Backbone:
């Protein structure tokens, strides 16, 4: 690869120290570099139209930056690699301590590409579609702020699975199984599989559990009717980047998206080593601090 686009999270790289360092390393290898710092789809599209030869997007920040980058890249089929400037950085492939060596390997073509499954959510109100979006990690339907517990009916391929009285529900991809799904006590899934996980958030039940579904299934989540004088506030969130308010009886239909995210993999360690190093160490840190 010789042509790169850097997408920088200015909150994580305020003085553009790492951005400039990456640019210098790549240019020394004979590569060209464009930088996008505004963090909007519009600015991303403008750069891609002006520089149609770009071969790879590098996301500088944390996992949230990479997720936003994945949404930007969906129309361009660009592979993405993340540089971890955050804390956990589970999706980010490049650590600061190995920056130069890893970037040189990237230019040399010493990497692999994983096609990660994405999911599509279609929000409908009274039979009319009001929003569509896709996610690499998850689509979350949850109560907004300090509202009461919400009622959510879950259907799979037209059949009722359960009615949750809960704070919400997470529909996660395999990639997103280690994100909000894990925090809600959902299962960890190998990221290259093709399936979906439905996990209730703080359900008012002793028996509510996660459900693992085939990637070709259709999930419909219906918001329960208003039960009190004050309407419960419910939102649907797509990878934490975009949220839409839901009303009682609104539905969101979730299926496997046609689009995939092309993640560049360069580490010699496998998925299970990353689990131990990232999540295992994080639990150890939490225990040490308690």
Residues:
């Amino acid at each position: 690869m010789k042509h790169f686009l850097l997408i920088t999270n200015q909150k994580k790289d305020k003085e553009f120290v790492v951005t400039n360092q990456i640019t210098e390393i790549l240019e020394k290898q004979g590569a060209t570099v464009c930088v996008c710092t505004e963090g909007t789809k519009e600015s991303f599209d403008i750069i891609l139209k002006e520089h149609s030869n770009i071969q790879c997007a590098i996301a500088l920040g944390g996992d949230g930056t990479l997720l936003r980058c994945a949404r930007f890249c969906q129309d361009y089929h660009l592979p993405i690699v993340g540089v971890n400037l955050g804390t956990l950085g589970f999706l980010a492939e490049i650590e600061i301590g190995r920056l130069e060596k890893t970037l040189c390997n990237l230019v040399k073509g010493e990497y692999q590409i994983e096609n990660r499954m994405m999911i599509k959510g279609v929000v409908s109100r009274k039979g009319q579609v009001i929003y569509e979006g896709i996610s690499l990690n998850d689509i979350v339907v949850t109560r907004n702020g300090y509202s009461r517990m919400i009622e959510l009916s879950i259907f799979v391929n037209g059949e009722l699975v359960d009615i949750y009285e809960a704070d919400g529900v997470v529909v996660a991809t395999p990639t997103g199984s280690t994100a909000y799904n894990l925090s809600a006590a959902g299962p960890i899934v190998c990221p290259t599989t093709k399936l979906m996980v439905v996990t209730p958030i703080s359900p008012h039940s002793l028996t509510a559990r996660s459900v693992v579904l085939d990637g070709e299934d259709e999930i419909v989540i219906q918001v329960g009717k208003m039960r009190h004088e004050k309407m419960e506030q419910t939102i649907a969130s797509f990878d934490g980047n975009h949220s839409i308010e839901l009303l009682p009886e609104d539905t969101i239909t979730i299926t496997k998206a046609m689009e995939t995210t092309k993640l560049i993999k360069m580490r010699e360690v496998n998925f299970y080593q990353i689990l131990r190093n990232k999540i295992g160490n994080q639990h150890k840190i939490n225990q040490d601090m308690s």
Notes: The domain at 3-111+266-289 is CATH 3.40.50.10330 (Rossmann fold). Residues 271-289 form the longest helix (19 residues).
